User: Fold this.
Amino acid sequence: MKRLILLAFLLVAGYSAFAQDIITKKDGTDIKAKISEVGTTEVKYKNFSNLNGPVYTISKSDILMITYENGERDIFNTESKSNTSIPEGIMTLDRWTGRLSINGMNIDKKSTHLYLSPEADAMYKSGDSLSSVGDVLMAAGAGGAAGYFTASLATGNTEGGGAIYGICAGLIVIGLPLHIVGVNKINNAIADYNSKHGFAHSTPEVSIGAQQYGMGIALKF
Assistant:
């Protein structure tokens, strides 16, 4: 009989030890609690040691994870769209920085996924990479040609100038299409966002390759 009572006591004690929710904060501390509500921006709970006590509130931005009494977990991401304030207005591209902006508010390139759909975000990142490579190639070509021209004027030595100018021109010829295609991808990503938010407008499309009358670049409006 004593063994049965002891076993029952151990079972109750064991259940009490685990029948609690654990709030793990981002600073590493744990709060033994009983969750009463998980809202959009905050969590309400009671201390497990005083279930008849007051209800406390903690911001979700301070929480790393909640482990519920049944073992399930909620892991919180501060970059989730639900916690991000999305400004209203048309999305545009800053040509100098390559960054997107909404009503003049610049969007960090690492945060574009919070505003664009997965497909549009992938298109933007691809376009940003292509246009950046194109810009580097064109800058290298133009800078190399200008540097050689300045040096040849200063020294009077023009030996090998044709080859150097040819290489520089080749860099520009390769970089320009990459830049155009990249910007076109970015514009398509912007058009996707604006269309879904009621700011639809036509975006020029660029195609490179075989055209109706031969090889070249076609711009469609």
About this structure: Residues 91 and 190 are 6 Å apart (CA to CA).
